[in-house]
Amino acid sequence: MKAPASAPTPGSVAEPPEPRWLTDDEQLVWRSFIEGTTLLDDHLDRQLQRDAGMPHVYYGLLVKLAEAPRRRLRMTELAMLAKITRSRLSHAIARLEKNGWVRREDCPDDKRGQFAVLTDEGYEVLRRTAPGHVEAVRQAVFDRLTPEQQKSLGEIMRIIAEGLQPAEAGADLPWLR
Q1: What is the pTM of this model?
Q2: Rounded Cα gap, residues 65 and 57, in angstroms
């Protein structure tokens, strides 16, 4: 039987399928998304560096800890909530510890586990920094969008985030690395 024209012959390599290139409209959306998120990240980092001497990621960690019961979370849970690698979290927590804003505590029921705990000093930094940060977020995002656009943005970003966090075992997610 003769092999179909698209099947590789013995010793040959199959050509990869043609990529699904973005349309011109999709390319505009994608580039707008990248430019907007890059500029927003930079804007928020600069505001937080100026007001509190910390990057946006560190501020997010302090917020997660402030919202947690007893202002403490297991390191693995904090990495998952922050959507960052365990290595990046460990480095960030070390810097926050150096500032006196966070401390680590051993987990009593798991000798390998640790908690990150927001200190009173860290909570005070967060309390002082939050008004300027929320104003920067409001000016950069919410003041520019109608209520309908805000709702759409939330729905779109939720769909994207859910699609990038598959529930099956073995998923390559930052906090599992």
Answers
A1: 0.84
A2: 13
Residue type, 108: P
- Among 102, 118, 107, 112, smallest CA distance to 68 is for 118
Instruction: Output the furthest CA–CA distance in the chain (Å, rounded).
Output: 77
pLDDT tens over the chain, length 177 residues: 444 555 556 666 788 899 999 999 999 999 999 999 999 999 999 999 999 999 999 999 999 999 999 999 999 999 999 999 999 999 999 999 999 999 999 988 887 889 999 999 999 999 999 999 999 999 999 999 999 999 999 999 999 999 988 877 677 888 887
State how far the Cα of 80 lies from the Cα of 108, in Å rounded to an integer: 21
